[in-house]
Amino acid sequence: MSDKTDKTDQQQRLSVFKTYKLYVGGKFPRSESGRVYEVTDAKGKWLANAPQSSRKDARDAVVAARKAFGGWSGATAYNRGQILYRVAEMLEGRKGQFVHEVAEAEGLSKSKAADQVEATIDRWVWYAGWTDKIAQVVGGGNPVAGPYFNLSSPEPTGVVAVLAPQESSFLGLVSVLAPVITTGNTAIVIASERSPLPALSLGEVLATSDVPGGVVNVLSGRTAEIAAPLASHQDVNAIDLAGADDVLAKELEIAAADNLKRVLRPQPVDDWSAAPGTDRMTAFLETKTVWHPTGSLGASGSSY
Amino acid sequence: MPTNTPTAADALTDVTASDGSLRRFLHGLPGVDTVGLEARAAALGTRSIKTTAKAYAIDLAISMVDLTTLEGADTPGKVRALGAKAVHPDPTDRTTPTTAAVCVYPDMVATAKAAVAGSGVKVASVATAFPAGRAALEVKLADVRDAVAAGADEIDMVIDRGAFLAGKYLKVYDEIIAVREACGTAARLKVIFETGELSTYDNIRRASWLGMLAGADFIKTSTGKVAVNATPANTLLMLEAVRDFRAQTGVQVGVKPAGGIRTTKDAVKFLVLVNETAGEDWLDNHWFRFGASSLLNDLLMQRQKLATGRYSGPDYVTVD
């Protein structure tokens, strides 16, 4: 047999297509509606069918996120840090897959896509380091006129809906998702409408990195359709509108006002790889202040 | 209604004459087609109930809830809170119907009675050494009399599963008759079979007929204290039993699934079962109840969703 025949045999092998699924409550369901939509690469070539989530998928995701909130926010900051670092470890192992998906989704060369993926992994590590440090930065002791220790400490806001950026399908996604869960919130993230595949694959990574089910829930589909019920949902505590255009952002902000949700308005980002700062973490933190009596001041004016 | 017993007995007098005849009758009931029963229950569970029908179903389900607290840790304060919730399930929306009853242990009946006074909400009390039912008959009857004297409108008794599984059907029958008498005219009697402990569907069918022959006003699936409680299949089976019993004797008996029904979706499935099996006559809280506690919050959240168009959350209903 000649080499030529061997080659033909290999080319004839049918590749196995991946069924992309949602990631909700630690499981990989299809959309409740049974719908899918076509995802294409930057040039319009078909890549895969992604689930097109309905409002009921959004509702289920909220239930899962609420259920996970107690455990995740109650975990020690150190433990959360370890788990987020583990996400970076898992990503490192599947780098090739993500480079491929990001390159196709965003029309980048392989080396540019690799840069993006590496920046994304580094971002997980960066946020993993913040879990047990954010309290020292935004909390602290307050000087008060009285015999009290007065301490403020940051607490997670709760269930946060995140509209991932439309353009940067992976680095942008992680740049808005990681700060939300770093501080103990749980998240429902709506993947980029045009290129949801890296986000859906991220679900598989999260499922294998000790992140408890429900802490991150990934939905794909029409951003406006999924975001509307989340914005008006009474059991969602905050919403990050990074992936909404001006018109949608305004609508969602009005809907979110009903139960006084925290809203993070979309801000133009030129370069997702720039140092992110702590703003995205502090946007979804509440401050708890406690007054602790120090005892009587004593004759000398001090109890020490 | 205490008049049930003579009427039922007239039609089936010979059946309860002796242990042997009762056994012949109960074992002569047609065997249950397990696969068919479960398939039927599952098929009826797929009905889509939307918009106005859903609103109707939610209000009906709320009006059928026996709001239950049966914990060792029940305090008078908790029972009062439960009573207040039964009277006004959603304080922000006074169009919400009241629940059917609150269900408590006998020593809490007086407290519950005071909490729901004047509202039309009934007080149900479990009795007869609930949930195990392992006590002497005299003790069980004293338990019942105590609850009735404290003002209970309904008594939820447990059958002696040990005697039932040992085949002593007449003992179980006599015990229900005795409790029925202890209830007097003041209280309706619900008979709990604890279907999770009866092992087979055939046994559930036999227990249903046994309870109805003995004059139960309601037959109830379970105590909520074992692993398997109300399921669509065992409730469907009991609904078939009350339907057949009425066809044969003219006496209508109510059904109460209890335990494990937590969501509006589940409750609506049960209502579909009722409508399709027993019929519309049972779609009323005089003839069908849900024994539940957390179900009510989910019904209220769904009700708020229908009213406002927004998904509600647990922050907007009371914590029990």
How would you characterize this protein structure?
The complex is a heterodimer of chains A (304) and B (320). By secondary structure, chain A is of the alpha/beta class. Chain A has a single domain (21-293), classed as Aldehyde Dehydrogenase, Chain A, domain 1 (3-Layer(aba) Sandwich). Chain A has eleven helices and ten strands. Chain A has helices at residues 3-11, 55-74, 77-93, 95-106, 110-130, 134-138, 171-182, 197-207, 223-232, 246-256, 279-282, and strands spanning 36-40, 46-51, 140-141, 148-156, 159-163, 186-190, 216-219, 238-240, 262-264, 285-293. In chain A, a hairpin with a 5-residue loop joins strand 1 (36-40) and strand 2 (46-51). The longest helix of chain A is centred in the middle third of the chain and has 21 residues, at 110-130. Chain A is globular. Chain A starts with a helix and ends in an 11-residue tail after the last strand. In chain B, helix 4 crosses helix 12. The two termini of chain B are 33 Å apart. In chain B, strand 3 (122-127), helix 7 and strand 4 (154-158) form a beta-alpha-beta unit. Chain B has helices at residues 4-11, 19-28, 34-44, 51-63, 76-87, 109-115, 137-149, 161-165, 169-183, 201-213, 232-249, 264-277, 294-308; strands at 65-68, 101-104, 122-127, 154-158, 188-192, 218-220, 254-256, 290-292. With 320 residues, chain B is α/β, with parallel strands linked by helices. In chain B, strands 7-6-5-4-3-2-1-8 form an eight-stranded parallel beta sheet. Chains A and B meet through helix 2 of A and loops of B.
Give me the secondary-structure topology.
The complex is a heterodimer of chains A (304) and B (320).
Chain A: H1 3-11, E1 36-40, E2 46-51, H2 55-74, H3 77-93, H4 95-106, H5 110-130, H6 134-138, E3 140-141, E4 148-156, E5 159-163, H7 171-182, E6 186-190, H8 197-207, E7 216-219, H9 223-232, E8 238-240, H10 246-256, E9 262-264, H11 279-282, E10 285-293
Parallel strand pairs in A: 5-6, 5-8, 6-7, 8-9
Antiparallel strand pairs in A: 1-2, 3-4, 4-10
Helix pairs in contact in A: 2-9, 3-5, 4-5, 5-7, 9-10
Chain B: H1 4-11, H2 19-28, H3 34-44, H4 51-63, E1 65-68, H5 76-87, E2 101-104, H6 109-115, E3 122-127, H7 137-149, E4 154-158, H8 161-165, H9 169-183, E5 188-192, H10 201-213, E6 218-220, H11 232-249, E7 254-256, H12 264-277, E8 290-292, H13 294-308
Parallel strand pairs in B: 1-2, 1-8, 2-3, 3-4, 4-5, 5-6, 6-7
